[in-house]
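Listing S7. Sequence submitted for prediction.
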Amino acid sequence: MSTTQTRWNLVVSKDTDASLRQFLAASGGGRKGDLSRFVEDSVKQRIFQLTVQDIKQQNASMSTEEIEELVDEALTWARKQNC
């Protein structure tokens, strides 16, 4: 976690709460901060998944060749920036 933190107040079902706490306890967790780390990791993963899904939808009309050409162009640009 970063040094700057924000406090969230979340509402989840009792079943979700119990399942998560059991999961954390069974996997050696249950210590202070484990729940926050789990939620933060889960949110980051979901944002990544939704971003990938959005990009795939945006590029659905492009051919594989067009996408590979754009990737090659971006890699060439990035390599020049690091030199």
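Caption to Listing S7: primary sequence and predicted structure tokens for the chain studied. The chain has a mean pLDDT of 93. Residues 14-26+33-82 form one domain.
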